[in-house]
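Thought: the user wants the 3D structure for the chain below. I'll pass the sequence to the structure tool as-is, report back what it returns, then summarize two notable features.
Action: structure_tool
Action Input:
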Amino acid sequence: MASTRLQDRLKKKRPFASAREEAILGLVRASDQVQIRVCRLLRPFGLTPSQYNVLRILRGENGPLPILEVADRTVTVVPGITGVIDRLEEAGLVKRGRCDKDRRVVYVAITPPALEVLARVDEPLRRLQDSIMGRLAPGELDALIGLLDKVRGPLEAEE
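Observation:
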């Protein structure tokens, strides 16, 4: 079995300069590996991770949201949220509408076909999450969530 140590996986001859460097590189590497698998899972459904993210937000809200609110709620930063919404609208997965009180505000709502797509994605995604995180005991999972919150919190506060 191949080594899981990052230094070995990267074929790095010298040790990392610090534990912090190793932790950041390990986090980036793990994130990349998860993203690759999520992309592969979503591709047959005609979705990108950003599109799935938007649809997930809209399904959870159970009603239209302003586009800027959707952008604020995304898991990953989506610089071109308008383009993502455009592609979802072209595919018939969302509808846009202007606010009656403020015509500058554009709302977006999920459509029934999008709900059907998400229903088909749910189980394969749950299995993927289980396969990725299933090696962690519940306490380890809670610890990981807490550690990630601790790292992410100050970074998001800087924004």
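Final Answer: Structure generated. The helical segments are 6-9, 19-42, 49-61, 67-73, 81-90, 112-133, 138-157. The chain has two domains: 10-45, 47-123.
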